[in-house]
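Retro notes, item 3 of 5
We never archived the inputs for the glyceraldehyde-3-phosphate complex last cycle. Fixing that now. Sequence and ligand:
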Amino acid sequence: MRQPWVGGNWKMNGLRESNAALLGALKGAEQLAGVDVAIAVPAPYWQQASEAMNDCAINVMAQTISPHASGAYTGDCSVAMMQDFKLSGALVGHSERRQGAGESDALVAAQFAALRGAGLSAVLCVGETLAEREAGETLAVVSRQLVAVLEQYGAEALATGVLAYEPVWAIGTGLTATPEQAQAVHASLRAVVAAFDINAANALRIVYGGSVKADNAAGLFSMPDIDGALVGGASLSASEFLAICQAAGQIAL
Ligand SMILES: O=C[C@H](O)COP(=O)(O)O
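Structure as it came back at the time:
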């Protein structure tokens, strides 16, 4: 039995005032029952979010993290800085970082190692572009991205966090993968992990991301290998995000 997980990735959105309203609406909401919930907020607002969520079950995460412990890495934020603000973990390998900031499989693996070394959780994101899907390369791409971490750190380490399948063509486009399309990839990802460790594969939460909304969440969550969602745009609306959390909390995983 896997506890559903829903993450809200705020990306580069929000200012103090709007954040306060959103955080206040999420805190203690009854729709959070039966689901693990995290929000990944921009670094300048780690403190604000961490303080607001201090005595509630919502975890605060970073959107990316430096693989380095400290030093001359302008613009980076370290795992120790995350710990200073009581963050629970970070996203690694989001496609907007892979594509926009040149984060490679090797760098993502190093970020994963930095988090795990500090006992923090990692939400490993994998996903194919539209061109890769149309070329029939979906499973090869997501398996390569997954195995880059699995081979070095093992399935047990992966299962302490979350694996997010986010097809690039579905992110922020309104083009959600169908439940069947997502399920097919999730099942393949779980099989890749199972080849390393069957118990870790069964325990691993594999969540879907890409234009998840309140009105399509339940259909996605009805699939046996979809254990929740990583939500971008809809996580900026408390009512949308909470409805997605509620849908996740109602599924029997
Ligand atoms: O991290 C979240 C994903 O990029 C999905 O974003 P989206 O829900 O805006 O499509």
